[in-house]
Model the fold of this input.
Amino acid sequence: MNGKLVTADGRTLAYRRVGSGPLLLCHCGGPGFPGATLGELGGLSRDHELVILDPRGAGASDPPPGDEGYRLEDYAADLDELRRHLDVDAFDLLGHSHGGFVAMTYAAAHPEHLRRLVLVSTAPRFAPEYTDAINAVWDASPDPAVAEARRAREQRLSGRARDRDDFVRLAMLETRLFFAHAEHTEQLLAVFRRQPPNLEALSYFNNAVAPRYDLRAELGRIRAPTLVVTGDHDYFGSLAADEIVAGIPHASRVVLDEAGHFAWDDAPGRFREEVSRFLAA
Done:
């Protein structure tokens, strides 16, 4: 079931409700990705009613006015608009990747509204040691598509894309790095063909947010019990998960074998089991 709300500043935010059970609000990654990239979170919808937000400027949600409405605090404010729209006080929240950045920002600012927090394939900062760890994993891969995706990633990040279409082409090649298993890449590409990412949101993040992104000083303000889930093929991985756990007072982490950045696609059974058990505690 699809739903919409109108924010205090007149924008439309779209969301999707799927499954049944206790409510779980979900914020996807990107930035600029539509909520559809979460799918049904590896069958987690069998245990929970997922409320999956299309972040501002992505999917069916309106972009903010101007070019500077893509701060983490702006995304967090939309989460609180959704909370009020759903008429819930305390709720469970799942954030994936950039959505994890948003979820940590929200949890630190509004600890009174969170019951439990799930952070999937995310990080409290960007660090060279994360890159070194995932490069070792990618170096060991026999899949030629991984090598091609790494070249595309390097070209995109270096700014050598010729134009917008070339940037998109490189980004699509790069999606192979999001998964431990190549066959799962097509699921994400199919979403992007229907609902392309918002490149303005991504550009703002890369230029204005990423250079100073570091939430470690804020993590101690998070009071909700927290589960950090990552995969052994995720480009943030266990090092980032350990830093989050070290900063949040009541946090634990799980590393899924043979799982990448979209862990629920690579390891759906264990992902569902770990998250459902944590939320039911």
